[in-house]
Amino acid sequence: MIPESLSEYFRQVEAGEEVANEPMVAFCNSHERVVLWGASFLGTAVGRGLRAAGVRVDGYWDLRSEEIGSVDGIRVTQPFTGETPGDRTLVIVCITNNVILGSLMEHAIAQGYPTAISGSLFYMAVVCGFSKSRGADVNQCKVNACCNAIYCRKLASILHDPVLRKAPPADDPLLVTNMLVIVNTRCNLSCKYCLQYLGSYPAEKRVNYPLEQICSSAERFFAAVDSVSSITIMGGETFLHPDITGIVAKMLSIENLGFMNIATNGTVRIRPEQMEGIQHERSVLCFSNYLDFVGPKQQEIWHENLELAKRLGIQYRVSLPMPQWAITSTLYPLGRTPEQLARLKEGCISPEGALQLRGNKLHPCDFANGVDSIVGDFPGDYVTLDDEAPVPVLRQRIRDFFNAPFYRACDYCRGTIGFTEGAGEQGHADFLTPPADGDLLGHIPH
To answer: Fewer beta carbons within 10 angstroms: which end of the chain, N or C?
Structure first.
């Protein structure tokens, strides 16, 4: 939650403008204690940047506190420890994984720490050196382990540039931070808390979407918007799609795109020919880290795939092992009123301007995609990209879709309903059946 006193400051930061840090420094130092939640790459970089700007950093929180000990001489402790009352503590949440970021911020507020702000905002302000006047190097952005580059509105603003667009910038630009391009609903794993709810898909819906449909829908979408910071090609398991090289080639031909992530769980054996085209300055291969929850053979394949990427000179990134993972919402309706749904969307923790393209449908988030795919067809919850509408008409449809007061899927959404240890736990959870006893978590263990 951005405090009103800093809303204009962070607006300028996200717009790629040059900013004076005095208002931010004064706000931070007005608190008795400043704590960075997360002591890895982002937390370390933000801490150094804040101290250089004049902010007093009093401590770090991390579940791995005993292992880490300290960062730059500053002690690391368990979350929610410290003698200073929560209402006089500023918590800067330095977690780059967006799946769990919003949930942790809500959790901090619930624990009595009302001022919790994303560390990615501070990274853009005091660490990232890119701006509209200086430009951006997407090759650096894509491999940066410190920032949440795939949801970077600052990068989207910088990319909306007449040189890159080869056209005058729009007066009212339509900027997208990230779009997930869902290439299939097939996966070799059975993650209990899959973000795409693949464990709830019937067999007939576990498919590879046709290459032609993926490419034509993407072409239509990119013609209608001004810039997209990044796209993430994912499934299911990406490398189970037979035409993955064609999909990669199409996406890299798009000019108003910053960079591209190709996501994989790494436990399907990747053939060298499937890597063709990935050795590109705007692409990075992203390995999920589920090694604590898969078998020895899958671990072996994961390491072989990583070595293959190294041997072929492909830029890659490996996710940090997550000591805590979010249990996402159940998938049954809750009977909310339109007013309640509008308030829910207004306070949604899903990143603004983050979308999902599945087949010919553009969805607003993981959850709406899951509801539409598994529960029922809700036409107001997506934009269809394969019709004959002129590009200006499609552009307006997408803008109106962004600005919709709510989506029907919002009535199914509880947000995060719990936490589990680590990501990639194998098994099955029933997200679809309302519990007879009224237990909010239903059949979901917690």
So the answer is: C
Task: Calculate the alpha carbon distances from 65 to 51, 77, 391 in Å.
Answer: 21, 5, 52
Closest CA to 422 of 99, 16, 112, 24: 99
Residue 445: which of 411, 404, 417, 423 has the closest Cα? 417
Residue environment code for 48-87, b if the CB has 16+ CB neighbours within 10 A, otherwise e: ebbeebebebbbbbbbebeebeebeebebbebbebeeebe
Three-state SS at 389: coil
pLDDT at residue 397 is higher than 70: yes
Task: Please state whether the predicted TM-score (pTM) of the whole model is above 0.90.
Answer: no
Relative orientation angle of helices 211-224 and 244-252, to the nearest 10 degrees: 20
SS3 of residue 328 by DSSP:
coil
Asked whether the beta carbons of 258 and 138 are under 8 A apart, the reply is yes
Percentage above 70 pLDDT, the chain: 94
With a pLDDT cut of 90, the percent of the chain lying above it is 63
* Residue 268 in domain: yes
Same domain, 54 and 158: no
Average pLDDT score over the chain: 89
Identify whether the C-beta of residue 184 lies closer than 8 Å to the C-beta of residue 214.
Answer: no
3-state SS, residue 249: helix
Tell me the residue ranges of DSSP E strands in 254-301.
257-264, 283-287
Q: Which domain holds residue 334?
A: 146-402
CA distance 198 to 258: 29
226 and 170 in contact (C-beta within 8 Å)?
yes
Q: Do 218 and 188 have their domain in common?
A: yes
User: Residues 234, 182: contact at Cβ < 8 Å?
Assistant: yes
**What region, left, alpha or beta, does residue 203 occupy, with left being phi > 0 and alpha being psi -120 to 50 degrees?**
alpha
CB 360 within 8 A of CB 214: no
404 vs 439, residue with greater confidence = 404
Q: Collapsing DSSP states into helix, strand and coil, what is residue 91?
A: strand
Are 351 and 151 in contact by the 8 Å Cβ rule? The answer is yes
Q: How many CA atoms lie within 13 A of 121 on its CB side?
A: 21
CATH of the domain at 273: 3.20.20
Among 75, 91, 126, the domain-final residue is: 126
- 61, β-bridge pairs: 37, 77
Task: Check: CB of residue 237 under 8 Å from CB of residue 266.
Answer: no
- pLDDT for the residue 353: 60
pLDDT band (50, 70, 90) for residue 326 = confident
Evaluate whether 269 touches 306 at the Cβ level (below 8 Å): no
The answer to whether 318 and 306 are in contact (CB under 8 A) is: yes
Under 8 Å between Cβ of 192 and 332: no
Residue 114, domain CATH: 3.40.50.20
